[in-house]
Write a structure and sequence with these properties.
Blueprint: H1 2-11, H2 18-31, E1 35-39, H3 42-52, E2 60-64, H4 70-77, E3 81-85, H5 96-110, E4 116-120, H6 131-141, E5 144-148, E6 156-157, E7 160-161, E8 168-172, E9 186-190, H7 193-202, H8 224-234, H9 237-256, E10 277-279, E11 286-287, E12 293-297, H10 300-309, H11 339-347, E13 348-351, H12 359-373
Parallel strand pairs: 2-3, 2-4, 4-5, 5-8
Antiparallel strand pairs: 1-9, 6-7, 6-11, 8-9, 10-12, 12-13
Helix pairs in contact: 1-8, 2-8, 3-4, 3-7, 5-6, 9-12
């Protein structure tokens, strides 16, 4: 890593340049996309992906109510209005059936469905959304699919890589991600090389050549040091993701033997189950890379405090759904409008998950959870 950083320092090319170009080629090859465009952050990647996909001021974009804030704020930054739709209770990914219903209802009621220019599904926690269903919706309604793949580098759906499942896709290299930079960085992939050229212009103040500006872009360029760091780490990503998958299997096995869990069904709520813990469902078409290992738990906040007292880290992703964030009050949505997302926000808990995790540590986590509920 230090040698890679020294290489950039010796080159004196600190922004964009050969390191970024090499990373772009390597990420495009990994995902199966035609092109990749490095940028300053995952949030920047979402904005670039939306604008390149044709989202304009006055448009609307459908997205999940249960995600990190940037999924929705990037829509607003593109000048569009977010339309929040609830999630599937089994996976917590955007519910494609509800999206289809939303589009059909709008078409029947107002004939305004064409104003929805894109759908932004989030591959939550490292598992791809139902991209077969979203492909069908895209074809039926003529809307672009833009992937929020910030948590899903290396994930797949039916053998196709996240990042090549929509017209554009945004990845984050924030330091907690499966592939992480030494600061902020992101990348956008696309199946359309012309969109890639547009994004390269947008990330550089809308400039096709120095000091000439064809449109209003932004300073979204990637630092060369971040690209060099990511290129070193990229060689280890497959092994790290396999470790995460093995750790998830260990968690699954220990929870299955603990008496804590019940089988998830798509219509079941936690309150309908006598078991204190429920695991999220895995789609058979998905290659899950477990950016997070998340459970749904009764008395979640008490459990989290109990684990903290035992020096076991955990986190809540996410404690407040997007439609209830104060900044989106202008949309007129209220508690009860997205019941699955709202219940998930009260229940989800991310347990320790990183490649170097040991089986003994996982066992201690599960045993501590069992101790709490006993």
């Amino acid at each position: 890593m230090l040698a890679a950083i020294a290489r950039v320092c010796d080159s004196q090319t600190f922004i964009l340049g050969p390191e970024v170009e090499a990373l772009e080629r390597e990420i495009a090859a990994l995902t199966g996309a035609a092109s990749a465009v490095g940028c300053a952050s995952g949030t920047e990647a979402l904005w670039l992906a939306l604008v390149a996909a044709g989202v304009k001021p006055g448009d609307a974009v459908i997205t999940t109510a249960f995600s990190f804030f940037a999924s929705a704020s990037a829509i607003v930054r593109a000048g569009a209005t977010p339309i929040f739709v609830d999630v599937d209770p089994a996976t917590l990914n955007l519910d494609a059936a509800l999206v289809g219903r939303q589009l059909r209802d709008r078409r029947l009621r107002t004939q305004q469905a064409e104003k929805i220019s894109a759908i932004l599904p989030v591959h939550l926690y490292g598992q791809c959304a139902d991209m077969d269903a979203f492909d069908r919706i895209s074809q039926e309604f003529g809307v672009a699919i833009v992937e929020d793949a910030a948590q899903a580098i290396g994930a797949e759906w039916s053998g196709r890589g996240a990042g090549a499942l929509g017209v554009t896709a945004a990845f984050s290299f924030y330091p907690t991600k499966n592939l992480s930079a030494y600061g902020d960085a992101g990348i956008v992939t696309t199946t359309n090389p012309r969109m890639a050229e547009h994004m390269r212009q947008l990330r550089n103040h809308g400039s096709p050549r120095r000091y000439y500006h064809d449109e209003f872009g932004w300073n979204g360029r990637m630092d060369a040091i971040q690209a060099a760091v990511l290129r070193v780490k990229l060689a280890h990503l497959a092994d790290w993701n396999r470790s995460r998958q093995q750790h998830a299997a260990t968690y699954d096995q220990l929870f299955a033997g603990s008496g804590l869990i019940s089988k998830q069904t798509s219509s079941q709520t936690l309150n309908e189950s006598s078991a204190p813990v429920r695991l999220l469902a895995r789609s058979p078409q998905a290659k899950h890379v477990f950016h997070q290992y998340v459970i749904r738990a009764q008395r979640r906040d008490e459990l989290r405090q109990f684990l903290a007292e035992r020096k076991i880290g955990s986190e809540i992703y996410y404690p407040l759904p997007l439609h209830l964030q104060p900044v989106f009050s202008y949309l007129g949505l209220n508690a009860g409008d997205m019941p699955v997302s709202e219940q998930a926000a009260r229940e989800v808990l991310a347990l320790p998950m990183f490649p170097e995790l040991t089986e003994a540590e996982i066992q201690r986590v599960v045993e501590s959870i069992a101790d709490f509920y006993s």
